[in-house]
Amino acid sequence: MVCTLENHRAEVRQLLAAAFDSIDTGPTQLLPLSSESLPGRALARAMHARLPIPSFTNSQMDGFAVCAADLAEASTSHRVTLPLGFTAAAGGAQVIHQPGTATPVMTGAEIPAGADSVVPVEDTDPGVFTDLVRPGEGTPSGSVSFSSPSSAGRFIRPIGDQLPGGTLLAEAGTRLTPALIGALAASGIHEVPVRRAPRILLCTTGDELAAPGEHLHSGRIPDANSPMLAALLRGYGAQVSTARLPDDPQGFTAHLHKHAGRVDLVLTIGGISAGAFEVVRQGLEPLGGTFHHVALQPGGPQGFAELNSSRGPTLPVLCFPGNPVSAYLSAELFLAPLLRSLAGLPEPVSRSAVLASEVHSPEHKHQVRRAVFEHGRARVLDPGSHLIHDLANADALVHIPVGVSHLPAGSRIDTWSLNV
């Protein structure tokens, strides 16, 4: 039976609905903002500022806090000279400003009580700080001259000017970027509730697969799918464990049952085509697994199953083909959109491009091609499902829908960002 791309997407959404809903609405983790595992996670609930920003009225400049009225008559021909008061430093307690004086104030320091304007130090005479005395360290002396007025509120940042206390900082589901973590910290938040990361068991299958560093005798190949797909899924916020399983249907299903209750999803790679030793198909079909061909190239063979367990909820199993490009594109088409939504990640960037050369596609299939950008045009690569090095070099994906068999050079197409 041939299934459409959209129908299989709907099947995958239905398969994972319960597991992913339990992550979305289930217990959360409270992590400090300093946690190494925080960047990229999604907020479990909306966050509001605990403090206004700034949390107190402070100076925007290094200069002198004054009463604007004391400088109303200042000019180049009539300089106003004021005696110095105690110095207000960043991090220090608020000082009291005496009318008729100039209080030295540093950037970020609380505006002295009684002052309503700040004159930058470079706009004064002598233009530098002299005779600075902090409270409790002696008696202020010296003076400073001004040659122009300074309006009330000048170079003063009022409390809450950037952000009032209680302001919504981020909705539930928002991805925690470095900038957002900084904004949360600035607003007085030190820990945040995050959604639990989806737990995925990634199973690659086949007697031909060798572990990294293992000696390759005749007939065996390195397992490229495990590191590639684990990295892809972790980039979408998943917690991934891996297993490399031989062509043993009973051992395969036993391994899956062992993980029931420990993971949210099992993702299998390979073993679902029409060959004689298709371990995934042989293991899951007797348990009610569904395997069919999707009108898609590459990545036509697809499957899924649900394993009942006494340890907890049904365990969903999603089955992708084993060729590396097919497996990667299957993950991007069917699983990645759900993981991105759960992690608060944006969809891939779409870009319109002109084809550098003509493209042919099977009319009855939705073809997904890799492309590279050259001189502002998209050069579409070979559609082979085994060409992993082309996949690594590709800039984008090109979707050619069912019903389109030929696109001439110069055609305008939509592309989706890849490997970014």
Structure commentary:
With 420 residues, the protein is α/β, with parallel strands linked by helices. The strands form 9 sheets. It has a 7-stranded mixed sheet, with helices on both faces. A hairpin with a 2-residue loop joins strand 25 and strand 26. Helix 3 packs parallel to helix 6.
Structure characteristics:
7 helices, 5-stranded mixed barrel, 7-stranded mixed beta sheet, 28% strand, 420 residues, 29 strands, alpha/beta
Could you tell me the mean pLDDT?
A: 92
Shape category? elongated
Helix content: 10-25%
Describe the main β-sheet briefly. 7 strands, mixed
**Beta fraction of the residues?**
25-35%
Q: What topology, given as strand order, has the largest sheet? A: 1-19-21-22-18-14-17
Residue stretches low in confidence (pLDDT < 50, at least 5 long) are none
Span of the ends, CA to CA: 35 Å
So how many helices? Answer: 7
Radius of gyration: 32 Å
Question: How many β strands by DSSP?
Answer: 29
The SS-based structural class is: alpha/beta
Give the topology, please.
Blueprint: E1 2-3, H1 5-25, E2 28-32, E3 47-48, E4 58-59, E5 63-66, E6 80-83, E7 103-105, E8 117-120, E9 124-125, E10 143-146, E11 156-157, E12 168-170, H2 178-186, E13 191-195, E14 199-205, E15 209-210, E16 221-222, H3 225-235, E17 239-245, H4 249-258, E18 265-269, H5 279-284, E19 290-294, E20 296-297, E21 301-307, E22 315-320, H6 324-343, E23 350-355, E24 359-360, E25 366-374, E26 377-380, H7 388-393, E27 396-400, E28 406-407, E29 412-417
Parallel strand pairs: 1-19, 14-17, 14-18, 15-16, 18-22, 20-25, 23-26
Antiparallel strand pairs: 2-13, 3-12, 4-11, 5-7, 5-8, 6-10, 9-10, 19-21, 21-22, 23-29, 24-28, 25-26, 25-27, 27-29
Helix pairs in contact: 1-6, 3-6
